[in-house]
Amino acid sequence: MKPLLDKDEVEQLDEQQLEAYAQTVLATERDRKLLLDHASGYRGRWLSGFLFLAVFIAVSLLDLSPTMSNTILCVTVFAVVQWHATGINRRIDAVIRLGRKIED
Fold it and tell me: 6 in a domain, yes or no?
């Protein structure tokens, strides 16, 4: 990532401009760190499988009708897949945004 200003340009700034520049650089770095965190993974990657397994075991242990059990399992599968897809999409978006920032 290229710095916004050169060292010589930073030295020429007055105190208010330097403060504004520092805030801009800090905000950029915070955004970059957040993108790196999102790009490196997400907690649902492992949790989604365990969540589905826990619901499956709970439904198996309860004495429910087959229709009710199937309904609960289908809704759980749908919810886990949506949660997983959201995490993957967030990760892909972060990787794309980081790639664009590197190109700049």
Answer: no
